[in-house]
Write a structure and sequence with these properties.
Keywords: Amino-acid transport, ATP-binding, Nucleotide-binding, Transport. One of its GO terms (molecular function) is ATP hydrolysis activity. With 249 residues, the protein is α/β, with parallel strands linked by helices. The chain has helices at 43-51, 73-78, 96-103, 108-121, 123-127, 138-150, 168-183, 195-201, 219-224, 226-233, 237-240; strands at residues 2-11, 20-28, 32-36, 58-63, 66-67, 81-84, 156-160, 187-191, 204-209, 212-218. The chain has one domain: 3-Layer(aba) Sandwich (Rossmann fold), CATH 3.40.50.300. The chain is built from eleven helices and ten strands. It has a six-stranded mixed β-sheet, with helices on both faces. Strands 2-1-4-5 form a four-stranded antiparallel β-sheet, with helices on one face. Strand 4 and strand 5 form a beta hairpin. Bound molecules: adenosine-5'-triphosphate.
Length: 249
C-alpha cells in the first residue's frame, strides 16, 4: 500500500524558482526508500516540498490517500509524516529530555509515556537524558533528532542526509538504527550522499537528476546498474550488496 505518492511535483525557494522539476515517486508501507543523486540535484528541496516546509508550485502529494500539497508543515506532521532536517535538528543547549519534550504535540502524561518508550528503544538517550545535546557525538545527535521526530509516532519519516559528517563506523551504526526503526513499522524516505551504503539498507531507490527522478527500482537493481554505478557509486558497489538489507517483511 502506498503511504506517500508524489506526482509531477515542482517547486523551489522563491516563486520563480524551479529546483524540483516534475518529481514523481512513491513510498509503500514498510519501505526504506533512498533518494540519491548528484550535488544540487534538488534532493533536500524535494523533501522540504513534501514535508510542507516549502510550498509546491505544481503537482500532487498524497499521504495516506489524502492530498496534502500546500498544507503547512505542522498539519502534515499531525497526519503522520515527520521530517528530520540535515542541520540544526536538535537544540544544543537543552538537555536530551528537553529536546524530546519539544518534539511532541502531546500533553504532559502522554508526552512522558512516549518519551519513556523512546528511552527504551534508544537506551543511550536514557543514559544521557540530563546531558546537553551539544555534548553528544554526531551519531548520537542524529539518533536524538530522529527520536524528537518519533515523539509524534509518525508512520513515515523523511531523513535528510542522516549520515552527513559521520565517521564510516558511526554512519554504519546509524544505518543499522534506521533499519531497526523500519522494522518497528516506520517507513523511511531518506536523502543520502553515501549512496552505496544507503542502497545496501534500502528496499527501493530513486536517482534524482536536475530535479526529476530519472531512475527508480529496487535498491539492489540500482546498485548493480552500470550507469548508476559509474555515475554515483564506483566499482566497489557489487561486493557490498551481499550484506544486510532493510525493509519489513
Ligand atoms: N535555502 C535555499 N535558498 C535558495 N536556494 C537554495 C537553498 N537551499 C538550496 N538551494 C539551491 O537549490 C538547489 C538544490 O539544492 P538541494 O540542497 O536540494 O540539492 P541536493 O540534491 O540535496 O544536493 P546537496 O547534496 O548538494 O544538498 C541548489 O542549486 C541550491 O543552491
Amino acid at each position: 500500500m502506498a503511504l506517500l505518492t508524489v506526482t509531477d511535483l515542482r517547486g523551489g525557494y522563491a516563486a520563480a524558482d524551479e529546483i524540483v522539476k516534475g518529481a514523481t515517486l512513491h513510498v509503500d508501507s514498510g519501505d526504506i526508500v533512498a533518494l540519491i543523486g548528484p550535488n544540487g540535484a534538488g534532493k533536500s528541496t524535494l523533501l522540504k516540498l513534501i514535508a510542507g516546509l516549502l510550498r509546491p508550485r505544481a503537482g500532487q502529494v498524497r499521504l495516506f490517500d489524502r492530498e496534502i500539497a500546500g498544507f503547512d508543515a505542522s498539519a502534515i506532521s499531525r497526519l503522520g509524516l515527520a521530517f528530520v532536517p540535515q542541520e540544526r535538528n536538535v537544540f544544543g543547549s537543552m538537555t536530551v529530555a528537553e529536546n524530546l519534550e519539544m518534539g511532541g504535540f502531546l500533553d504532559g502524561r502522554h508526552m512522558r509515556d512516549r518519551r519513556d518508550e523512546l528511552y527504551e528503544r534508544f537506551p543511550l538517550l536514557a543514559e544521557k537524558r540530563r546531558a546537553a545535546a551539544r555534548t553528544l557525538s554526531g551519531g548520537q545527535r542524529q539518533i536524538l533528532a530522529m527520536a524528537i521526530a518519533l515523539m509524534n509516532a509518525p508512520k513515515l519519516l523523511l531523513l535528510d542526509e542522516p549520515t552527513a559528517g559521520l565517521s564510516p563506523q558511526a554512519a554504519e551504526d546509524l544505518f543499522d538504527t534506521i533499519v531497526e526503526l523500519n522494522r518497528t513499522g516506520v517507513s523511511i524516505l531518506m536523502v543520502e550522499q553515501n549512496a552505496l551504503e544507503a542502497l545496501v539498507v534500502s528496499t527501493r531507490a530513486y536517482v534524482l537528476v536536475q530535479g526529476r527522478a530519472e531512475r527508480e527500482g529496487s535498491a539492489a537493481d540500482l546498485a548493480s546498474d552500470p550507469t548508476v554505478r559509474d555515475l554515483f557509486l564506483g566499482a566497489k558497489a557489487q561486493p557490498m550488496l551481499a550484506g544486510k538489507s532493510g525493509g519489513q517483511t
